[in-house]
Amino acid sequence: MARRSLRLPSAALLQTTVRSKPEGSPRSYWVSGALVVLGIIAFVVLTTVLIKCSHHFWAVEEPVQASASKWNVIKDEISLIAAKKITNQNQMSEIRPQKYPTINDHSTQIHHTTNSSFLPTGQLSSPVKPYLYELSIKAYLLAFPHLNFGLLNDSIYGSVIIYFHCHEATSIIQLNAENLFFRGDKTVLKRLGKTREDDHVLDIKDPTFSNATSIYIIEAESPLVPSHDYSLSISYHAYTSLSGSTGMFKVEYKPDPDSFKHYMMATQLQMEHARQLFPCFDQPNMKAEILLSIEHPIGTHVVSNAPARSRKPSSADFEITTFFKTPKMSTYLLAIFISDFPYKEIYYNNVKIRMYAEPLKINHVRHALESAKKILHFYEKYFNITYPLPKLDIFALPRLKVIAMENWGAIALRSERGIYDPEVHSPEIKNNVFSTLAHEIAHMWFGNLVTMDRWLDIWLNEGFASMMAFRTMESVGTSKALSDGLYFSELQGKCLYVDQDVLKTHPIKPKEDVVFNVANYQLRILYLKTAIILFMTEEVIGADIYRETINIFLENYAYRNVRNEHLFDTMEDTLAKRNKNHTLPPGISMSNFMNSWVLQKGVPVVTVNKLEDGSIHMDQFLFNSRNVNGERTKPEEFIIPVFNFNPTINKHDIIWVIPNTTTNMLPHQYSIPLDPHARGYYRILYSKEIYEEIIKNLKRDHTSISIASRARLIDDAFALAEFGYLSYEIPFTLITYMVRERDYVPFETFEKHLGFLSGYDYNATTASLIAKFALILFEPAYKEINDGIHDEDTSFVKYMYRKLIKTYICHDGNGPCHEENLKKYREIKIACKDLLLSNLKCNSIPEQDRKMVYVSMIKKGSMDDFNFFLSKYHQEYYESERTLMRKAFVFIPRKEELTKYLYNSLIPTNVTGPIISDIRQFVSDLTHSPHPQLIRTFFIDNFDLLYLKYKNIPTHFAYFILYILKYSSTEEKQHQYFLFHQKWKAEFVELHYEAYFSTIQQDYMRKAESRKKYTAKIEAVLNNIIKNM
Questions:
Q1: pLDDT at 488 over 60
Q2: What are 644's strand-pairing partners?
Q3: Which has the closest alpha carbon to 478: 517, 420, 532, 533?
Q4: Using CA atoms, how far apart are residues 283 and 291, in angstroms rounded to an integer?
Q5: Cα–Cα dist 357/343, whole Å
Q6: pLDDT: is 624 or 385 the higher one?
Q7: Which residues in 671-739 belong to E strands, given as ranges?
Q8: Distances (CA, A) of 927 to 72, 165, 498, 522
Q9: What pLDDT band is residue 731 in, cutting at 50, 70 and 90?
Q10: N or C: which terminal CB in the chain sees fewer CB atoms within 10 Å?
């Protein structure tokens, strides 16, 4: 089949050379620029005193109140005087010529409302639909130390012309806007004619704006006429948000270690943050083309979704970059990066791939560029659709709220997910770079070319991207994600534990009447469970049919929006076309099967019991981790495919477990364990007799069972025992085979459950027995690693295996590695005196061993050792190395130093935004500290400062509260938490935390009950097993 091409016409695209500075500016620009500057200076001198007295009114946090104050009226006037009209915009338009708005003297005030009578949820009605945005922005970015724009610092002035089609008569146009400042006289509504002269300006009432509902409302004096096109011109003012936040935000960096700070601007608009950048129809199904123009400080350049078309000076301090028109796309995919970052580039066919990074890191982007090239080739071949854009830019940001963002043609990612230096970084970093790009580039097709209709259907974006990332890693990537079983630990292993809690979890697709707010949803469900369900679906219908379905789906819905039923119907049609309807049970359609997994929450348990004649009987119930006594909840309507190797026919088949249907398999028609490659999304509860058979097989030859299936057996057994569905004798006996285990994923799965067990805070005797038993299982593997056996295997999964084993054995500096670790540290202390610890010229410790060495020093080293380490931490500019060092700092034994470390890391007064990319990981690491109560008290005492700094990232901020709750087990601590909660209740409500943390409290109480119940049983089981090993 010939490959289909959906690339936009690009033959006429112009090549633009990026220069650090323009060669010159026309004299008229200098004259007008000087007059404007003199005017601003005179005005500022007259108003400086007043402005200083009321500078608090400039806060972006209260945009409605601020813009209503007289001081913001003054500031708006300054903005209007200073913002120069963007010239030559006729060159931008690829539709008929348009007249562009100019700044005039009309004055119409915006009516700000506290609520809206239209759609209070912030959702827009849709009698009109946009087809083009012409967006012009002037960015007052303090890119360099010498720049100063006075009151305009870190602000943007924007104007947008929205072209839209009217589908039904209406006099009201609703747009999304948030934290924007409007001037009503700058809002102009026109009915478009065949030519510009035929355009007709329509009378409108005073616009109204509700920041609470993010809706800007324009009401025409007369209704708009259906089947006609209109334009809406709006001018506005806004401020950049905190570093790494949403909308347009600024980020600081240093071009070299000894220089002053520079700043760049970037955007993060998913999910509904385009409204913070410009007024728009900020919903996925309101796709439109975007024509962009950015006025930015000289010395910077701009990267966006489309290629740059022209770049020219506009004044003494600014130049304008205009861009070609984007494809038809959703507003959340718009990207703008303003910086002086250098770039490297390569080509894939005719697609230019560029990567931008800080000057200090730009020489380490080769792996990312080569990976992007491989990934593009793989996806074009797999999807049978050409990458639809002429270029792909990748921008490595020093700080970003999310790990990465799939802006169409202009991917953003955290620096540590794009930079790989083979002389500094580990195979894990290398793999992270590839997997991140594989996920984001998959979105160029799933999410960008074909986009979900509403945020309720976000699983269609994220599920496919997550699944395809694993398939790409297996085929052309840095790890065998499928054959090595990594998909189990990364997907099922991370998702099942969340999904089995019926009070915390939710369906993949929320109910239709729900207003989607990502803060209320588990990302592991939206990203990981969806990928697992797609893998399971592929296993059901076959890889060829699945791939054909995806190809047809992408071709049929290119540049359009989709819902669940579009995918399910495409699957159904493809099965019918290939005469494969018999793949599913009689009377079950593809929609029936898929909806049973997409629309229902939770994870089922498949029970497998052997009957007297050797056949097996299978049934299902819903896993409910709220039970502690093994109660079986009434089953949901899951249509479960249990994958099986059938010895009778010598091939794989499917055993269907369907509600209200008896499922039996005759002897010799099944193989144990079932689901041999762990592709099914369910737990399996075998009878004791079958478990004993499995344990014998594992002890005889564990490699006869696949890696993923071994991990699944361990994961299921411990999870089922934890909640009373199974005796703890089964999982602890099952893993005795692990003295011979030499693969990563089974060890990673067991180590995770060790973490769960230790989280129960057992008494010293029980904890000691668990640690002793685990040491027996880990030591044989550690001895082989220490002796250099299999050192020739340099694969990613073997690297992870060695790292996990050595980290566990040498954990926290108290294992047999202690003295050796201190010796290694003091050697690099001498060698790295004048170099960074990330520099392999002085630091010869393998990356997988560094954390252990650093922890040994923190716990057992001298003050001189510690001070040296602290100084190197402040000098380090590789985030991967800083992350390793932070993981060691949590073991600081001295309370005063630990408190100082926490304050300097989380609440530095000289930094405006978050200084740690991932607060979640930072707080999670703190659970290893020897002083959890000190940390808990620190979070409570400084909660006001933490709230101000991190509330804009609620999914991260929640981890501070999780930590406080985790260490509130005694009655005294529970009372302290009650008082803390009462004090901050309004903030809990604001961040939608109330229900979530109520269930967390119940979860900890349940764990306490379980701990009391199972402690004696675990001790008895372990004593007996250890005695007989």
A1: yes
A2: 653
A3: 420
A4: 18
A5: 6
A6: 385
A7: 683-686
A8: 46, 55, 19, 21
A9: very high
A10: N
